[in-house]
Amino acid sequence: MKNALDKIWNKVSGWYEEFLLILPNLLMAIAVMVVFYFLARLIKNGLLKLIGKVSADRAVIRLLANISTVAVMIIGLFVALDIMHLDKTVTSILAGAGVMGLAVGLAFQDPILNVISGVLLSIRSMPFKIDDLVKTSGYFGHVHRITLRSTIIRTLDGIDVVIPNKTVLQNPIENITLTPNRRIDIACGVGYGSDLELVHKTAIKAIESLDRDTSKEVEVMFTDFGDSSINFILRYWVKNAEEKYYLDNRSVGIIALKKAFDKEGINIPFPIRTLEFNQKEVLEAVSK
Predict the structure, then answer these.
(1) Range of the domain at 132
(2) How far, in Å, CA of 145 to CA of 122, rounded?
């Protein structure tokens, strides 16, 4: 019994002596963690202000700030473990973190790419922002919302389309809002008996009085000989690229062109189809 108590006492005494030996390193490690904690808070507050200047998305700002806090605290933990002479533990943690990071990266590749794309899309220098009129990934409408994982496009008929951020960044983007003006194309045709010079002059005159971008000329270009008409394209520019303004001005242009042609007696023909019949076969069919 006495031998057992002596062994226990010796064991406890050994632990106590080892604790006294590592106490300075332990206190130093705790001090390092405290310093890194306050450093992490300082860096987080600085990033909140800095990122707020380039992104208005609060979720993105908080995400980046929290990532920076975790990164600083992990560095502090490694420094503290090194002070405690736990080099093997540090090596094991790094190896485990590497393997886990690779596994997580492969398993959640698409979600991670969507989050990274969402962060990039939230930066103010990116090609579009909320309420911009854009065409991307085959959809046309206003940017309704940008989240960490997806971009919501509200189409012109009021349907919300959720597009993964990765898809948005990997496809061409047409930002109509960034364009200061927009061209209107009106396709039309006139009868073969029309005076083409008069058509050209009348079409230009009809559009010149409209609300348009006067820095660019009205253009009329004849394109081809159709089945029942000589076809042309009428082109002019308006100062606002928004869809409603564009459609309203296109409608006004069509009305003005029709009125001008009616005034000048210029014919816009109906489609004409000529049918040829064998006279003998027709007579035989009638006699039956």
Answers:
(1) 126-175
(2) 10
CATH number for position 236: 3.30.70.100
Place of tokens 């009106």: 186
For residue 119, being part of any structural domain is answered with: no
Q: Answer yes or no: are the C-beta atoms of 216 and 210 closer than 8 Å.
A: no
Supply the pLDDT for residue 233: 95
- Sequence-ordered list of residues with C-beta below 8 angstroms from that of 193, at least 6 positions apart, any chain: 267
**Residue 257 resides in a domain:** yes
The token pair that represents 159 in the structure block: 């349907």
Structure tokens at 81: 């473990």
Give residue 285's identity as a one-letter amino acid code: A
- The helix or strand, by DSSP H or E, that contains position 184, with its residue range, turns out to be strand 182-190
What is the block-wise mean pLDDT of the chain (288 residues), using blocks of 10 residues?
59 58 71 83 77 60 70 79 69 63 53 58 64 86 80 87 82 82 92 92 92 90 90 92 87 94 90 64 61
- Residue 139 pairs with which residues in a beta bridge? 136
**Those residues with Cβ within 8 angstroms of residue 114's Cβ, 6 or more apart along the chain or in another chain:** 148, 149, 150, 164, 165, 166
Strands ordered across the beta sheet of 182-190:
182-190, 230-238, 219-225
Query: Which tokens go with 107?
Result: 């398993």
Same domain, 6 and 102: yes
The pLDDT assigned to 222 comes to 94
**From CA 26, how far away is CA 151, in angstroms rounded?**
49
Residue 284 lies in a domain: no
